[in-house]
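Internal tracking record. Fields below are filled automatically when a chain is submitted to the structure queue. Please do not edit lines marked as system-generated. If the sequence contains nonstandard residues, flag them in the REMARKS field before resubmitting.
Queue: standard
Priority: normal
Entity type: single polypeptide chain
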Amino acid sequence: MLFNSIEFFLFFPLVTALYFLLPHQWRWLMLLIASCVFYMFFVPAYIFILLATIVVDYVAAIQIEKSSKPNGRRWLIGSIISTCLILAVFKYFNFFIDNFNGIANLIGWNYSLNTLSILLPIGLSFHTFQSLSYVVEVYRGNQKAERHFGIYSLYVMFYPQLVAGPIERPQNVLHQFREKHSLTYANVSAGMQRIVWGLFKKVVIADNLAQFVSPVYEHAGAVSWMYLSIAVVFFSFQIYCDFSGYSDIAIGAARVMGFRLMENFKLPYRSAGVGMFWSKWHISLSTWFRDYVYIPLGGNRKGAARTSLNLFIVFAISGFWHGANWTFVVWGMAHGLWLVLENRMNVRWEGKLRMFLGTLLTFVGVSFLWIFFRATSFEQAIQVIKGIATFQSQPGFLPSVFVPLNGAVIIGKILMLVVFVLIDRKVTEIVLGTRAIGSNRKVWLFAALLACLALFGQWGKVDFIYFQF
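SYSTEM-GENERATED OUTPUT FOLLOWS
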């Protein structure tokens, strides 16, 4: 079920009302059933894949807690292998087969393997990582194994953050499912403000920008370097508004019921340096890799060379996590190399002018690397880069798909984006509660956002970008 769909606008108030109407002891069951319904709106049969992951890690965590350290480690390894194997089959099997067949063809082997005709379950990477964090925290002694199978299932399946995060730690949310939450004005107000802001970012900003970005990338050889450059910048804001918008809606929907989810974005494009960028972008994933990959590899405890290698490995894995395509791997490795160079050169952006320049250069660099993230192939990515670098001119004939490239439409989207950039920080701080604002001004602000949703929102059930991961 999409957050930007009519079904969700019926689902959300119904589930919320039932949550507060039911006795406390039955609320977990209602939320679990509702989460299953939410997930089954996509591909119903894939609920069994999620169930398999839940059962494996539920049993493994209990055995880890009961066992001695060596046996507990075996259970941990078994859990990690089992859970990752499910992810590997559905997300990476065809990728490895295609690469094997390509190598075989290159060296002249008259042999090829068949790929599987399967779809990637929505959000598989997200709930896989959330489940893994649970068993690791139990093994480390930071979390008691959850004996209540329903509560643990709800931890993995809680509908607001089920398919695209934030990737939660058990210490933050498991206990919240046992707590009794009351219906309060503060929670409802804060949650609804967050939902409205998230929807605005998704359907008004991201989906309007997508109408320009998609045809430009699909026909990169048929448009001018200026259109390509605009599309690159537009995509930077499209993916930010799309993904952070999802996180806002997820956090807001949970907040209305009294649940607190972690923040996932903190104005990342105001970062001077790629290290700062990654401390503010997809925070739940960045901290996941820090705690469960970077630190176990040795972190920064084994010298500068090993620190650089660990950073590079983490970002290479992060790129592969995002998608079974070499474009994602290159995107991740490029970020890793950038961060390594920034650390080794001890780059510091101090003073207002240097901070401005650092922020500008970071945005330009991040936007450039988004080309590999957005492109469907290396050929398309190189076509976009080459078109910009060579000042590619626009052919005399354009296919009908380029209606979105009308000059007035482009100017309108640029003006819309400028307005968003001007209000993003202020509105974000308002919904986070870090900026005070009079009640009357707040009413007018969110009335204006609602008006924009009605007038300019693209309500065509457009998927969120990170659903593919």
